[in-house]
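Structural prep section.
Before we set up the soaks we want a predicted structure of the protein with zinc ion in place, mainly to decide which crystallisation condition to try first. Input record follows.
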Amino acid sequence: MSLCLWCQSIYAHPLDFRHLFSVSNQVGYCPQCLVKLEQIPAHQSCRLCGRDLTKLDAIYIKDGTCLDCKKWEEGPSHGLLEKNYALYSYNDFMKEIMSAFKFRGDVLLAEGFKPIVQMLYKRVIKESSLTWFEKARYLFFYQMGWQFKEYPYVIVPLPLSQKRLKERGYNQSVVLAELLQQRIIPAIRRSEDGGKQSKKGRAERLNTIQNPFRLDSDYTDAIYGQCVLLIDDIYTTGTTLRLAAAALKVAKPKHVISLTLCHG
Amino acid sequence: MTNEIQNLLYGKKLLLDEMPFSIQELDRLCQNGLIEMAQGIVQSEIKRPWGKQTIHRCRRCGNTDQRLFHSYRCEKCHQDCTYCRKCFNMGVVKSCSKLVTWVGPPPKFLEYKMPICEWTGHLSPRQAQASEGLTKALMSYEDYLIWAVCGAGKTELLFPAIEKLLQDGRIMAIATPRTDVVRELYPRLNKAFPRVRMSAHYSGSQDTQDSSSLVLTTTHQLLRFYRYFDHIIIDEIDAFPFHHDAMLHYAVHQACRLKSSRAYLSATPPDDLKTPFLKNRLQGTRIPIRFHGHPLPVPKCIWIGNWKRGLKKSRLPSSFLKWLIKTSQLNCPIFIFVPSVTILKNLFHALKEQVDLSMDHVHAEDPNRHEKITCFRQGKTQALVTTTILERGVTVSRSRVAIFGSEDAIFDEAALVQMAGRAGRSLEDPKGEVVFFHYGKTLEMMKAINHIKSMNREGGF
Ligand SMILES: [Zn+2]
Ligand SMILES: [Zn+2]
Ligand SMILES: [Zn+2]
Ligand SMILES: [Zn+2]
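Run finished without errors. Recording the tokens verbatim:
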């Protein structure tokens, strides 16, 4: 029996093999709350930004990507961010959860997404360019809960400015990244005044905006030649993640992809 | 500046972060012993046979359920910080947050010597009797219960009592479980007591800096107060979530001064009030008649078989359909209560296909909730399929009530009585009709019917 993280009703866990023997007090959402979330189907998502294509009119889709992504691809910053993985559509219910989690201080809400975020991470490894043997090895290690010696991906959460961090007490992207239970590399910093970015910031504008992110030079070696996985709470226009990717470019990563909890 | 702080903080317990004053100013007052700052979460250790256990307690809501605490690495205090998940909706309380209270001399409250009540209506003899009893009990700091049927006119009978108590310099609160009621009641009270300094508190409302003598608040918002009231009048004490939630009892307890008393209003008082009342350990009055003097409609029971199975195939029980069509010809609004949102949707679609009637459905999380209810009130929709959210407060004249699947465990005696109380509330149509459509009578259904019958008997019918 568990207490739902959101509505605090009591519900029974579906018994599966692992739960039978684990003593960890798992936290999660009850079935009634879970159905209100809209999970993005893996096979029907935009192959570039991870958005749910079933919610889009056919005229906005071209070769498995949405037109927004097409624009990014044709713009000057194409290839900066190779791909984004997203878990949920940003519907009204998700908005409520995110506002409690991000702005009102209910940190524990993220914990309820742990199993599904870890599952997505496994998908990221499966779809990577590693050899089948490496993939199998990593997945086995991950399943067993062992730490990797070297990482298939360097996990970099998107930072908050120092001022925001102090106000809020935590960075939601770090909290989400910690769900993966792998080492986190805080390679990017965010300058104090970079909080507001222009709303019309699309592909064309990317270079003209003052980039609020910069690389922490202590981590140049950790990034060099590596595959980077950026973690953020939400993918909206894709500008923020691309700015972060641009900041990493100095350290010459092999490629940069990202994982977000929501898309919308 | 000090005056403003005094007015805001006297009798309150607020988070330091939400204070509109500078930290330096507050620190200075703290050193002078005028305000007190306390840690938001108290931590203690208990020795158990298997070792030490850390126990947290929230200073604001009194929560000690350890499942509703969570600790994380806090970047503000650079330690592991614990926060309370029970009351975080009112602004999160963490180990490193401070709760501030005024401990210096109290501010000046307005004095009311002249007659202040401008309400000109009349009370029925029963109402007047209850009002007098209430005034007397509260005057001598004793608790009081008003056990009145739905539609007895509970608010009006408070007016004379409030006037007398305010004239005596008492500070009072009227607490109710729901925001809607606070917002509906506030203008009415304002009209009745135009010269009294009063404030309304609900989630999202602003904190006033006046020291008000009459406070209208949701039960949750009582947590912001600390030893402020001489009297708290708690409306609908039986309503969800009050009678399950220890937090709200704590809220009432700590918002009251050490010498204080409470009044309870209810149509279906919970056992912990009913028993002392019946054994004469708690003062109170029963008002078994509605203000229009007609008896409460007694619910009828109609068996509809295994409706759940039928509903899956979009089949509706024929006796229910027959009743609905017959009632709709009377041209009066119909409430159809259902046990859950899933059933709500299924039933609504089935009805839509099979019955030609202007209908709508509404539940707690419906964004268009208020518009739909207004439409129903104005008679634009004739039937409203709803979950239990409308069981209280909403009054539509001439309405008929059907409770579909009344054997469901969600419908307890109090809920059933409240829903039945929606019918026959106006003078033009005092009879109304209430039907329980069920698949097997339950104890709660029988209790509800007996409750209504005994109220009628006591009312002399
Ligand atoms: Zn839930
Ligand atoms: Zn896309
Ligand atoms: Zn609390
Ligand atoms: Zn802290």
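Observations: The radius of gyration of chain A is 19 Å.
Flagged for discussion at group meeting.
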